[in-house]
Every structure is written in C-alpha cells, then in structure tokens.
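Researcher: Let's do a round of design. I'm pasting the structure tokens now; please hold your answer until I've finished.
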C-alpha cells in the first residue's frame, strides 16, 4: 500500500530532492528545507516529523540542528 502524503509533505519531499538531501552524507537542516520551500520553519519541522513517522525521511540528531534526508523508499 502506498503511503499518502499531504500537499505540504509532498512540497517538503520535492524541496529536499532539489537541494540534494538524498543521503545521510547530504542531509539538510529544517532551516535549509524551509528556505527552499519558502514556508515557515515550524510548518516544515512538523512536516518533517510526519514524514519521518511515515518512513519517507530520516532524521539524524546532531549537536546543533538535526539533519534530514529522503529515504530511498519514498
């Protein structure tokens, strides 16, 4: 069964692909993704959490800001 994404989640996924956040080595912060989407960071952060719960993005905790990248399955 395909996972359904909301319009904002699709926007975030597309933005992440466009800025190259497709592997752990190329992970981006919520700030980077919010700038690309031109959306409030809080909206992007909520979307990233929802996408992480659906398995579409991976969150990598770091000392400062967490990094995110698109998983191969999405």
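Researcher: That's everything. Go ahead.
Model: Designed sequence:
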């Amino acid at each position: 069964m395909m996972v359904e994404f909301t319009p904002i989640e699709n926007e975030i996924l597309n933005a992440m692909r466009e800025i190259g956040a497709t592997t752990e080595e190329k992970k981006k912060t919520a700030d980077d993704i919010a700038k690309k989407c031109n959306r409030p960071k809080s909206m992007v952060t909520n979307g990233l959490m929802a996408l992480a719960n659906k398995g579409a993005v991976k969150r990598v905790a770091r000392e400062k800001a967490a990094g995110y990248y698109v998983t191969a399955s999405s």
